[in-house]
Write a structure and sequence with these properties.
There is one protein chain. By secondary structure, the chain is an alpha/beta fold. It has a single domain (4-321), classed as Ribonucleoside hydrolase-like (Inosine-uridine Nucleoside N-ribohydrolase, Chain A, Alpha-Beta Complex). It has 13 helices and 13 strands. It has a 9-stranded mixed sheet with strand order 3-2-1-5-6-7-12-10-11, sandwiched between helices. It has a two-stranded antiparallel sheet with strand order 4-13. Strand 1 (4-10), helix 1 (15-25) and strand 2 form a beta-alpha-beta unit. Helix 1 (15-25) runs parallel beside helix 2, helix 4 (105-115) crosses helix 5 (129-137) and helix 5 crosses helix 8. It is globular and about 55 Å long. The two termini are 35 Å apart. 52% of the residues are buried.
Length: 324
């Protein structure tokens, strides 16, 4: 049986890499394309990290990688290199076999959804610049997407880049608001707080068990995530955070969702103090919902998904320096 058709829109570093691995190797998924958007680390490094991830899975060249928007719609790019380093964990590979598809990521999103209307599921785990640009270029784009899952915002909680804003919404708040207003028929948001911090953050002992599974993927996981867990612990987050892979896991394994509710979600674009802050209005306020916000997931079940993934035996397509 064919898996769920997925496109991952990503700013590849740390958990983005895990998300790509899940799209490649989970039997429930059929990864059709990877589209790159400016976010976590330098753009060219992000693209290299995506190919590095394909490589460790033994799938280098099997999935098209489309280069997309290299900057937010209106803002200067803001990075998360203080959190993720370069996002590669110091790993490197021969890039001579690497090929990016010639088609721009936004054009690819428009074409692929036109070729298969109502079929493709978009997993947006970086700033929403590519998705918003597709909306602006073709107002019918949203109606052709089967589902859009967004890792972004906080459910009226704290931020992770400012006191009020989560990184993806902060980097391109205008794009986030365009997407939220676009009328996607099935839009799900996986927020940073409280959901990720409570249900998708694994303390050091749990993290170490994942890293010790003895496969190339487990060694890759450690290299990708070590810098981030060190940073998280230094700022009071007790473990390794996995909101991006959770976003795809919930699509592939819907039984992991324990609670969700419709909300009217908006993103602050006018104030510098609260730039990128997400407001999520529940039923009390009488507003027409534009998203389903996940409120609770099966944390142990999600951890088991990661265990199965990282225990999968793979052989890199070409050697990866530093993996052993």
């Amino acid at each position: 049986m064919a898996g769920i058709p997925v496109i991952i829109d990503t700013d590849t570093a740390q958990d983005d890499c895990v998300t790509i691995l899940l799209g490649l190797l989970d039997p429930a998924a059929e990864l059709r394309a990877i589209t790159m958007v400016a976010g976590n680390v330098g753009f060219d490094q992000q693209v290299a990290n995506a190919h590095l991830t394909l490589n460790v899975a033994g799938r280098l060249g099997d999935v098209p990688v489309h280069v997309g928007c290299r900057a937010p719609l209106l803002r200067e790019w803001a990075s998360a290199e203080d959190v993720h380093g370069d996002g590669s964990g110091g790993l490197s590979m021969d890039l001579s076999r690497v090929h990016n598809d010639d088609e721009h990521a936004v054009n690819a999103l428009l074409r692929l959804t036109a070729e298969a209307p109502g079929e493709l599921n978009l997993i947006a785990i970086g700033p929403l610049t590519n998705i918003a640009t597709a909306v602006v270029m073709d107002r019918s784009f949203a109606s052709r997407v089967r589902s859009l899952s967004i890792m972004g915002g906080s459910n009226n909680g704290r931020g992770n880049v400012t006191p009020s804003a989560e990184f993806n919404f902060y980097v391109d708040p205008e794009a986030a608001q365009i997407v939220l207003d676009a009328g996607f028929p099935d839009l799900r948001i996986i927020p940073w707080a409280p959901l990720t911090l409570r249900d998708a953050t694994f303390a050091r002992p749990e993290y170490d068990r994942l890293c010790a599974l003895g496969t190339p993927l487990a060694r890759f996981f450690r290299r990708m995530c070590d810098a981030t867990i060190d940073y998280d612990e230094s700022v009071g987050v007790d473990g390794s955070t996995h909101p991006d892979s959770l976003t795809l896991a919930l699509l592939l394994h819907p039984e992991l969702v324990r609670a969700s509710a419709p909300y009217r979600v908006d993103v602050e674009t006018a104030s510098e103090r609260t730039r990128g802050m997400s407001t999520m209005a529940w039923a009390k306020f009488g507003l027409v919902p534009n998203a389903e916000v996940v409120e609770e997931v099966d944390s142990a079940g999600f951890y088991a998904v990661l265990q199965r993934l990282l225990a999968t035996p793979t052989e890199p397509s070409v050697p990866i320096a530093g993996l052993d």
